[in-house]
Specification:
Number of helices: 16
Shape: globular
Helix content: 25-40%
Largest sheet: 6 strands, parallel
Length: 410
């Protein structure tokens, strides 16, 4: 008992000391300049992993020599990972350039402690955060002080942060997505496997660790069944990550699917090429979500030339003007999230499934048009190119960032 009490006291003292040391960086001055370093969960097959990867890619594409710090094993133990490698070897962290931390705010103190105050002080620090409701959680406020500016992937998220911390320096930078190689051969092979009789493919993807109430895949099943009617030349592909981690979600989805042979569930952890092939194989991406911070799958689908039906609310409204974007009408309702991720805070959208059924039916009746797909892809690629992303970065970030070799004080 005495040993246990002593160990507990040591751990408590250690936590207090870490908090004290981290507090020192809240008010320090960023006076160093160098190459940027991206901190994130690079090998995680989810939106949080995708965000870190595309930022790193975009920095390389714009002439920087970024370093990366992958915390996948330390902050996400047990989650499915894949063998991701950057397109070009990363640089070594120079200890001077800006730190871009693509992590959820609750993970930030742990990541900062892992890096250590000596690796953090006097460097320009940026947090890249996404949030799916109109106001950022109030308990995220204390994490704002660790950063000199916050990047948000949509105006919706930017406003959610500003509404909670008005003094925060928030910049909407979207996510940079290079023109993906949606190879015709890979997509054709994927289509043949999923739709052996050349059925029209409706695609929907979500992560079982996320809130099913927010992603709303049950509405996607309802909309598909209503639009498809008795047709046998259409199918719905549900791509579910972390399928085995949530028995409740699995049982509910299987109950909604029933014995409909036109609906399949894909559960494998896929790398980027395989996921791109799956996206490009689709005719329609269906997202009757209740809220999105950005909408990675929505943008990637547009970049593949796929028509995207999506709820006209939240982060994706930034690109609803693009060709191929089809808004699903909705009304705002109080949040009701049994997963506990969002609780009962604020509002989100409730999509009109009846109107969505008519929309999907009309899209499925249209003949395939490769020319139109090319137009959809080109416009999305232009909007989300790494070059356009770099032009949106703040002057302060650029003032602390080098594209040459020298590092040190400004």
């Amino acid at each position: 008992m005495a040993k246990s009490a002593f160990t507990s006291a040591i751990r408590h003292t250690s936590r207090l000391w870490k908090r004290h040391k981290l507090a020192l960086i809240r008010s320090d001055t960023a006076n160093r300049k160098g190459q940027p370093t991206v901190v994130g969960l690079f090998r995680i097959a989810s939106g949080i992993g995708s965000g870190a990867r595309v930022i790193f890619h975009a920095l390389q594409a714009n002439g920087y020599r970024p370093a990366l710090i992958d915390l996948s094993d330390r902050l996400a133990p047990g989650q499915p990972v894949f063998d991701w490698q950057p397109p070009a070897p990363p640089a070594v962290d120079d200890g001077c350039g800006p730190l871009i931390m693509h992590l959820n705010p609750p993970e930030v103190p742990f990541a900062l402690s892992m890096l250590g105050t000596e690796a953090l002080r006097h460097r320009y620090r940026i947090g890249m955060w996404a949030w799916e409701l109109e106001r950022m959680p109030s308990d995220w406020r204390r994490e704002v002080g660790f950063f000199h500016e916050i990047w948000a992937p949509s105006e919706f998220t930017a406003q959610a942060i500003r509404s909670t911390v008005p003094a925060a320096k928030v910049h909407c930078v979207h996510y940079p997505l290079a023109a993906e190689q949606f190879g015709a051969v890979d997509a054709a092979d994927c289509r043949k496997r999923l739709a052996p009789n050349d059925e029209r493919i409706v695609f929907c993807a979500f992560d079982a660790r996320s809130s099913m109430a927010r992603k709303n895949p049950t509405a996607a099943i309802e909309i598909f069944k209503g639009a498809a009617g008795d047709r046998t030349d259409v199918c719905l592909v549900l791509k579910v990550s972390n399928w085995n981690l949530n028995d409740t979600i699995r049982r509910e989805l299987l109950a909604r699917i029933g014995d409909d042979p036109r609906i399949s569930v894909q559960t494998d952890t896929l790398g980027t090429p395989e996921m791109n092939a799956l996206i490009a194989a689709a005719d329609v991406y269906l997202s009757p979500h209740r809220s999105e911070g950005f909408g990675f799958m929505l943008v990637k689908s547009l970049m593949a030339g796929v028509d995207v039906m999506m709820t006209d609310w939240s982060g994706n409204t930034d690109f609803m003007d693009l060709p191929g974007a089809h808004p699903i009408e909705s009304q705002l309702i109080a949040v009701n999230d049994t997963s506990g991720i969002y609780g009962g805070r604020g509002r989100w959208a409730d999509p009109d499934t009846v109107k969505a059924i008519s929309q999907l039916r009309a899209l499925l009746e249209k003949p395939r048009d490769p020319t139109r797909r090319a137009v959809i892809a080109a416009e999305a690629e232009r909007r989300f190119s790494p070059n356009c992303w770099a032009q949106r970065l703040s002057g302060q970030f650029k003032a602390h960032t080098l594209q040459g070799e020298s590092v040190g004080p400004i």
